[in-house]
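Structure tokens please, single chain.
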Amino acid sequence: MRKVISNTSCLIVLSNIGKLDLLKDVYGVIFITEEVAQEFGDFIPEWINVTAVKDQTKTKLITKTLDIGEASTIALAMEHDDTLVILDDKKARRYAKGIDITFTGSLGVIVKAKQIGLSVDIGEILSDFKRLNFRMPPDIERILMEYDK
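Here you go.
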């Protein structure tokens, strides 16, 4: 069974718009690192499993390129075979792609929710994201709005 590991940004943006439970509804159990839990700094529901990275050397090596939350998230993914990592940061996504880690982002979570038949209003969520200064390319926004029809 695929292990879904989230970085901090998705937790923050979904929590700030009152939609954190979408992660549970789409993926069931979510895994985060201790570093991500600390960055999030909010209540962690029982369906989010806080897990330590076993090889902290990997985390330290990746922090030469990425921040600690992203580094620990990617390091945790490297310790498991079948993972999906939720990353929004462009640099972190590039890093993950370079080492063949499968990833999605906060917008991908919303699309997946729609695909599996959950009642989500993509237009409303995108408006909420923009209100929080969540950056997305205009072409992606247009595509997502078309998907919502």
